[in-house]
Structure formats: structure tokens, C-alpha cells
Automatic annotation (TrEMBL):
Protein name, entry field: NAD-dependent 15-hydroxyprostaglandin dehydrogenase
SUPFAM superfamilies xref list: NAD(P)-binding Rossmann-fold domains (SSF51735)
One GO CC term, this protein: cytoplasm
Alphabetized Pfam families for the sequence: adh_short (PF00106)
Sequence similarity: Belongs to the short-chain dehydrogenases/reductases (SDR) family.
GO function terms (MF aspect): oxidoreductase activity, acting on the CH-OH group of donors, NAD or NADP as acceptor
Region (Disordered): 278-300
Length: 318
């Protein structure tokens, strides 16, 4: 199932910034065409697209503006990728948000901070973090089966989180979506042996991306002693899930001398400053490994409790 991404083509949602941008950059550097699907591009992402936009490039980047909560736009994303690159080999439905105030359990629909409508029947956080990856997986499987070649394995790489193993009073819906992603990835495991479609995931710890750094309300949870994992380190493990049969415990160690984890359908790799396989049963949990800990969740929890103590919590004020 392992294969080189060189000469292949990929779709990565949410690649306008963060982990997904790092993954898209790494794919491009290794000779893989990438369709970047996002609402927009941060300046650093625009540089990457510009660098790889020429027809003469060995790997090309194409930006497709996409709202991942709109299924018609997801269909269009695949149409554009097929038109630009032909066959798609790798899909990463990576776009996600970390319980922002505009779609947040402790700020219910109809309250001032929330953009979720009381009449809408849905939460933006769930649409982005859980529904969109499930729908993209369906579309990817359909494309893969239509272009099936036993000699060409296909890959879908999801982004779960250590929040998919933990409870989080500060971010309960985010935690629920990541539990959902981990369960979904494991449920897709048989596609590997049946159709040569490998569905895997990374479960990062605390990653230094705009998901945190652009949100002061989230940075309150980080202590100066906490260790950040970089987006590039996570992207390296994501690429290993595609190109290698085994992944080492230490990021960047290709010597094979340390502990190795087998990669197969349903594999979920936790990424802190080291890597470990997350087991479906009797797993010890993420623990306090370097890169896993946001030490001061108490601050955000106290803010949430204060909201609950306000008269009429949950009543629409709009």
C-alpha cells in the first residue's frame, strides 16, 4: 500500500494555513500536484501557490475557493481537481476549527457571539469538523472506485486530535467531533484490504498554527512551559502514513532503529514531540508527553461557568 507521492495528485481542504498548508507544501516538494481548497489563502499560502502555479512545474498547486460546509462546492472541488490533474490519488479533508466563539457550545445559537442560527438546525463547528470530512470521504471513495487500478493504492488522511481521546469541558463540541473522526476512520479500515483505499488519521497535540495563535481566547490555555508541536512535524507524519509501511516513534527518524508502528487502514497516529499509535481499546490516552498539554484550560472553563451563571443562559437574545 505504501507508495511515492511523486507524480501523483492530491486534494487538501483547509490548506490555506496551518497543518494542511504544511502538508500541501510537503506534497508539492515531493512532486505531488495539490488542489488547495479553502475559503482563502494566508500570505504564506499564496507564496506556495504562486511558486507552483506554472504549467511547467514538476508539481502544480491550484487554489479552489471552497466553503467546506457547502456540498455543492465540495462536488465542484473534485470536478476542478479532475480537470486540472486527471486522476486523484490522495485526499485530506483537513479543514477544521477549534470551538471559536461564533460556533461554540457555551455561546448557544441566538446569543450575540454565535453565528449559529436558532432556526438553522445545525452547528457550524460540526459541519466543518465532522460532516465535511465524512462527505469528502464519500466523494473520494466514489472517485477512487471509478478510477480503480489494483496497482495504484489510494489514500485518505484525516486530522483527528488528542481531543478525540480526552474529555474537554472547555471545548466539548470540538472534542465530540474529534471522537467522531477517530471512530469514522477506524470504521473505514476494511476499505484497505477490499479496495486498496487506505483511510488513516493523525491525532495532533498542541500545534502552533493560526487555529491557536490568531485567537487570544484560546491562547489563555497555553502556559509558557507548554511545548508546541509544529505544523511541519505533523505534516511529516501525514506523509509517512502515505509513503511508508511503518512509522517511527521519533519524528524524522527514518533509521528504523527505534520503535516502529505498522500503517494500515484505520491507523491513527498521535503526534506530540514523539509519535505513537492510538489503540481502539485499552489505550492509555495521550498523557503528558511534550507537545500534548495545554496546561491552563481552567481559565476558559471558568469563563464558560461564568456564562452559565448568567440569567437566561441559552435563551436567544437576537
Amino acid at each position: 500500500m505504501a507508495f511515492s507521492v511523486k507524480g501523483r495528485s492530491a486534494i487538501v481542504t483547509g490548506a490555506g494555513s496551518g497543518i494542511n498548508l504544511s502538508f500541501a507544501r510537503l506534497l508539492l516538494e515531493n512532486g505531488c500536484n495539490v488542489l488547495i481548497a479553502d475559503l482563502g489563502l494566508r500570505p504564506e499560502a499564496q507564496v506556495i501557490v504562486d511558486k507552483h502555479s506554472g504549467k511547467d512545474n514538476t508539481s502544480r498547486a491550484v487554489f479552489q475557493q471552497t466553503d467546506v460546509t457547502d456540498w455543492q462546492q465540495l462536488d465542484r472541488m473534485f470536478e476542478v481537481a479532475e480537470r486540472e490533474f486527471g486522476e486523484i490519488d490522495l485526499v485530506c479533508p483537513g479543514a477544521g476549527v477549534y470551538e471559536p466563539h461564533w460556533t461554540n457550545f457555551w455561546r448557544p445559537p441566538g446569543t450575540q457571539a454565535s453565528k449559529d442560527s436558532p432556526a438553522g438546525g445545525r452547528y457550524g463547528l460540526i459541519d466543518i469538523n465532522l460532516t465535511h470530512p465524512i462527505r469528502v470521504t464519500q466523494l473520494a471513495i466514489s472517485h477512487f472506485l471509478h478510477n480503480r487500478d489494483p496497482k495504484k493504492p489510494k489514500h485518505i488522511v484525516h486530522i483527528s486530535s488528542i481531543a478525540g481521546q480526552n474529555a474537554s469541558f472547555a471545548a466539548p463540541v470540538y472534542s465530540a467531533t474529534k471522537h467522531g473522526i477517530s471512530g469514522f476512520v477506524r470504521s473505514m479500515a476494511k476499505l484497505d484490504e477490499l479496495f486498496g483505499i487506505r483511510v488513516t488519521a493523525v491525532a495532533p497535540g498542541v500545534i502552533k498554527t493560526p487555529l491557536w495563535t490568531d485567537h487570544p481566547e484560546k491562547l489563555k490555555m497555553i502556559d509558557t512551559a507548554d511545548t508546541w508541536v509544529t505544523a511541519d512535524e505533523v505534516a511529516e507524519v501525514m506523509l509517512a502514513l502515505v509513503q511508508q509501511e511503518k512509522v517511527g516513534e521519533v519524528i524524522g527518524d527514518k533509521s528504523g532503529q527505534g520503535q516502529q508502528f505498522e500503517v494500515k487502514g484505520g491507523t491513527i497516529l498521535e503526534v506530540s514531540k514523539t509519535v505513537r499509535a492510538v489503540n481502539p481499546y485499552n489505550d492509555p490516552g495521550p498523557g503528558k508527553r511534550a507537545g500534548n498539554t495545554a496546561s491552563d484550560t481552567r481559565t476558559v472553563e471558568e469563563e464558560s461557568i461564568a456564562l452559565l451563571k448568567q440569567p437566561g443562559w441559552g435563551k436567544s437574545k437576537l
